[in-house]
Write a structure and sequence with these properties.
This protein is mainly alpha-helical. Strands 1-2 form a two-stranded antiparallel sheet. A two-stranded antiparallel sheet has the order 3-4. It has eight helices and four strands; from the N terminus they run E-H-E-E-E-H-H-H-H-H-H-H. It folds into two domains: about 1-95, no CATH class; about 100-175, no CATH class. It is globular.
């Protein structure tokens, strides 16, 4: 098996004398799809990177900007793969147009998190992690992060479901509740 490298060029081998790394981590499927659709670079499942390039298990923008294509290869996709790619592209496109997007970890500043939810960005992420372990699931209309963000906005700001639906670009006020 050949050496594996991080996107920054560091060898991901614990016995490597080249560079001692803080535990390498897998690149998430969300990041892999995002890179594919925004940079036209396919990152294989199981690809790893230095933990220095991650924030809350998501690649930092600087790390994404560093990624360069290594080779061109042909890959055959089945219908399920194509459907998954179409679904992911739709989600990415929808999320790029949203101002209040809790799914994009870099989309809101710490001050915006505090203003909308009364929690810091880190506290919000910890809260989402805790609630996510309780069995709550994503729905076709919104993610767990968005559902929690909307709920905290409603409690903090006292806004109507109709106004929250408008802010978060949801189809209607029923989707909020």
């Amino acid at each position: 098996m050949g050496d594996r490298y991080c996107l920054c060029g560091a060898r991901l081998d614990r016995s490597s004398a080249v560079r001692s790394l803080k535990s390498p981590s897998n690149i998430s499927s969300e990041d892999r799809y995002f890179i594919f659709f925004t940079r036209n670079i396919w990152i294989s499942e199981g690809a790893r990177c230095c933990s220095d390039h991650l924030v809350n298990h998501q690649l930092k923008q600087e790390a994404i900007d560093q990624i360069k294509p290594v080779s061109i290869r042909q890959e055959e996709l089945n219908s399920a793969d194509v459907q998954l790619l179409l679904n992911k592209s739709q989600i990415i496109l929808e999320n790029q147009n949203k101002k209040f997007n809790f799914d994009d970890l870099l989309g809101l500043t710490d001050d915006e998190y505090r203003l909308l939810t009364s929690l810091s960005k880190d506290d919000f992420n910890k809260f989402v992690k805790t609630v996510s372990s309780s069995g709550i699931r994503n729905s076709s209309n919104r993610s767990i992060r968005t559902a929690i963000g909307i709920y905290l906005c409603k409690i903090r700001l006292g806004l109507s479901n109709r106004l929250l639906a408008c802010m978060f670009q949801l189809p209607d006020k029923k989707t909020v509740s």
